[in-house]
Design goal:
The chain has helices at residues 3-6, 25-28, 34-48, 61-67, 77-85, 134-154, 202-210, 223-240, 244-257, 262-272, 293-300, 355-361, and strands at 89-92, 106-107, 113-114, 117-120, 175-176, 191-192, 288-289, 310-311, 343-345, 351-353. The protein has 362 residues and is mainly α. It has three domains: 13-120, Arc Repressor Mutant, subunit A, CATH 1.10.10; 202-320, no CATH class; 321-362, no CATH class. The strands form five sheets. A two-stranded antiparallel sheet has the order 1-4. The radius of gyration is 27 Å and the shape is elongated. It starts with a helix and ends with a helix. Keywords: Plasmid.
């Protein structure tokens, strides 16, 4: 067989402009305006079919204004600035005219005008700390929602679901010193980022929050409650820079402080006083963790409080008639974890009971 024929070179192109979009979720969740989100989608759509007979060709700001429902092209700039601010868009033009202070058109070596070049980043830039997916966006919503409800309570009103204005905080947005500028012949705008986004996985946070004394407190959060607690913990790590050890320590302290309902007490603490978490551990605290030797080991490694934590011998641990559930490799539950920790996540995002755990005790 002819080698050239068997190793045919080719190019691909869409038969028509695609009817599905390429919408980076991090841009949609970044907190920019509705108009800026619409423009981001338009720019991403055009990237999808830039070759062949169906190439999108050159765009202009009137086109962006039309589809973003802005009416006029001169209203587009501030929304482009939003996209530049979060690191999605870089505009290459001719730089600033030193005489007029206005930005100039790009030109080739012969001086002929060239269109500006809009370069988009489908992945978030290095250092971006905003929500990157639905899970992180949900965690931020929970924090903002609870703050709105508490603000309503302070005015003497009882918050009613659906009747409270919930405004998005700017946590995770890029903070720019001075006016935002397009990047081209000019050097890039110097950008100062807020505290870096946590690199701790949701699974690690979940595992840490399982060992905070629920068993000794005879408390077991439901899967929904535990999922919310994990989201709140990760939000505190992103917003305030709390570490995983601090999250676990704080949760354990709140479990022990609770008088009636440990689960509700811990959730309220994580919602209302998340900033406290980054200040843990408190050297003045004298905590005892009856059923959490791993937590004791983690805390005693801290130089600040090596002598304030002690483990209770097994002989002193409270006895219980409830059978100890075994560890499960399928859902990741450890020996002794309650049923509320023994669940799996389906492809649709639903939480279902772990059948492997159930079969072990059947």
């Amino acid at each position: 067989m002819d080698h050239e024929a068997s190793n045919e070179q080719f190019i691909t192109q869409a038969a028509t402009a695609p009817s599905v979009g390429l919408s980076p979720r991090w841009v949609q969740y970044s907190g920019i305006s509705t108009e800026a989100r619409a423009i981001a989608e338009l720019l991403a759509d055009n990237v999808l079919y830039v070759q062949g007979d169906h190439a999108g060709g050159e765009l202009d700001r009137e086109y962006l204004a039309y589809h973003a429902d802005l009416g006029r092209a001169d209203k587009v700039k501030k929304h482009l600035d939003e996209l530049i601010e979060i690191g999605f868009l870089t505009i290459f033009d001719g730089g600033v005219d030193p005489e007029t202070g206005r930005r100039r058109q790009r030109r080739d070596a012969s001086g002929a005008p060239l269109p500006a070049r809009y370069v988009i980043s489908l992945e978030p830039p290095a250092g971006y700390v905003g929500p990157r997916n639905a899970t992180e966006a949900r965690a931020q919503f929970i924090v903002d929602r609870d703050q709105a409800y508490r603000a309503a309570e302070k005015t003497g009103r009882k918050p009613r679901a659906g009747r409270v204005t919930i405004r998005r905080s700017e946590v995770g947005r890029l903070h720019t010193e001075g006016p935002v500028r397009a990047v081209g012949a000019e050097p890039a705008t110097v950008t100062e980022l807020r505290p870096s986004r946590t690199t701790v996985s949701r699974e690690d946070v979940r595992d840490a929050l399982r060992t905070v004394g629920w068993n000794s407190a005879k408390a077991a959060p439901t899967p929904k409650e535990f999922g919310e607690l994990v989201d709140l913990a990760r939000a505190a790590m992103t917003r305030y820079g709390a570490t995983l050890d601090q999250v676990r320590w704080y949760a354990a302290r709140k479990v022990r402080e609770a008088k009636r309902n440990p689960v509700a007490y811990v959730l309220t603490a994580f919602r209302a006083r998340a900033a406290e978490i980054a200040h843990e551990p408190d050297p003045a605290e004298n905590l005892v963790f009856e059923d959490d030797p791993e937590l004791v080991a983690a805390v005693t490694r801290k130089a600040a409080v090596p002598e304030t934590v002690r483990a209770v011998p097994e002989s002193e641990a409270p006895s219980t008639s409830t059978p100890v559930l075994p560890a499960c490799s399928r859902c990741g539950a450890r020996e002794g974890d309650p049923w509320s920790f023994r669940y799996l996540i389906t492809e649709d995002g639903d939480e279902v009971e772990c059948t492997a755990c159930r079969s072990q005790v059947a």
